[in-house]
From TrEMBL:
<keyword id="KW-0131">Cell cycle</keyword>
<dbReference type="InterPro" id="IPR039361">
    <property type="entry name" value="Cyclin"/>
</dbReference>
<comment type="similarity">
    <text>Belongs to the cyclin family.</text>
</comment>
<dbReference type="Pfam" id="PF00134">
    <property type="entry name" value="Cyclin_N"/>
</dbReference>
<dbReference type="InterPro" id="IPR036915">
    <property type="entry name" value="Cyclin-like_sf"/>
</dbReference>
<dbReference type="Pfam" id="PF02984">
    <property type="entry name" value="Cyclin_C"/>
</dbReference>
<feature type="region of interest" description="Disordered">
    <location>
        <begin position="259"/>
        <end position="278"/>
    </location>
</feature>
<feature type="domain" description="Cyclin C-terminal">
    <location>
        <begin position="160"/>
        <end position="288"/>
    </location>
</feature>
<keyword id="KW-0132">Cell division</keyword>
<dbReference type="InterPro" id="IPR048258">
    <property type="entry name" value="Cyclins_cyclin-box"/>
</dbReference>
<dbReference type="InterPro" id="IPR013763">
    <property type="entry name" value="Cyclin-like_dom"/>
</dbReference>
<feature type="domain" description="Cyclin-like">
    <location>
        <begin position="164"/>
        <end position="251"/>
    </location>
</feature>
<protein>
    <recommendedName>
        <fullName>Cyclin N-terminal domain-containing protein</fullName>
    </recommendedName>
</protein>
<feature type="domain" description="Cyclin-like">
    <location>
        <begin position="67"/>
        <end position="151"/>
    </location>
</feature>
<dbReference type="InterPro" id="IPR006671">
    <property type="entry name" value="Cyclin_N"/>
</dbReference>
<dbReference type="GO" id="GO:0051301">
    <property type="term" value="P:cell division"/>
</dbReference>
<dbReference type="InterPro" id="IPR004367">
    <property type="entry name" value="Cyclin_C-dom"/>
</dbReference>
Length: 297
């Protein structure tokens, strides 16, 4: 009897999120990009809520909670879209309801909870998010605020974020696949940084995407002097506005790098960092990426 050895050549996908390949039909159909461009303003925060809605929350508090959210998303290896989508929920919620600063981290956790459920095949658990707050919130509070967000946003969660434009923009640019991948990775990082900066709060996602792509092109020395015109032709965004937004993105990156460098220097000077009283009151937690546990700023 003849014997056969059966060998499975499939890669080990256990524990790895599975994603569909890019659909060339959708990328080549101009109507898809046109629909994104025509709909994006619907999901922008309709006002600067620090001036007319919020009475206890300041811009620096938003920056703190969004940076914490970014660290949690990174630590949990969530899909790239989860973080900007959760920040969108947070901003839209704060445009409608005034909350106390002590509830801001709870709101951020609930927004991540919803965005993860929408975008991931294996969403983050509520218990894990409670842990990341050092148990400063309860699972019951998390699910209650999840319901409040859904009610206030009228279940309209499929918001458009800068990441939605990246594939459409890069697909239409004269770049090799390897360069496209490198540009996309950097552009996603730059767009995420913009989500933590309040000055980009009401900037259209397509504009942030254009600026992030252009910044990545310049950073990788792939710009040819015509990228502004190309981005304008693809999205219809004004070239001067893209140029101005690019400068703001580069400034945000520079500020982030300076803050990181000064933070490393300070950590060598003192073992226990001092924390301003008003920051402690917010009770924001940060993730120690080396140990995988939450620590107070």
């Amino acid at each position: 009897m003849e014997h056969f050895n059966l060998v499975c050549l499939e890669t080990d996908v256990a524990g790895k999120p599975q994603r569909a390949i890019k659909d060339p039909v959708l990328l080549n159909d101009k109507r898809v990009l046109a629909n994104l461009l025509s709909t994006e303003d619907k999901y922008l925060p309709h006002t600067n809520y620090f001036n007319c809605v919020q009475t206890d929350i300041q811009p620096y508090m938003r920056k703190m909670v969004t940076e914490w959210m970014a660290e949690v998303c990174s630590e949990q290896k969530m899909e790239e879209e989860v973080f900007p989508l959760s920040v969108n929920y947070l901003d839209r919620f704060l445009c409608i309801r005034d909350i106390k600063r002590t509830r801001l981290q709870l709101l951020g956790a609930a927004c991540m909870f919803l965005a993860s459920k929408l975008k991931e095949t294996s969403p983050v658990s509520g218990e894990q998010l409670v842990l990341y707050t050092d148990n400063s919130i309860t699972l019951e509070e998390l699910t209650d605020w999840e319901s409040q967000i859904l009610q206030l946003l009228k279940w309209d969660l499929s918001a458009i974020v800068p990441n939605d434009f990246l594939d459409h923009i890069l697909h239409r640019m004269p770049l090799t696949k390897s360069i496209q991948s490198a540009i996309k990775r950097q552009a996603q990082t730059f767009a995420a940084l913009c989500a933590t900066d309040v000055k980009f709060m009401v900037t259209p996602p397509s504009m942030i995407a254009c600026a992030a792509v252009r910044t990545a092109l310049r950073n990788l020395n792939c710009d040819n002097g015509r990228e502004l015109l190309t981005l304008h032709d693809i999205t219809g965004n004004d070239m001067d506005l893209i140029r101005d937004c690019t400068e703001q993105v580069e400034q945000t990156i520079s500020n982030c790098m300076s803050s990181y460098s000064s933070g490393k220097q300070d950590s060598h000077k003192q073992e226990q960092p001092t924390t301003p009283t008003d920051v402690r009151e917010i009770n924001i937690m940060s993730v120690d990426n080396h140990q995988g546990v939450p620590v107070i700023f």
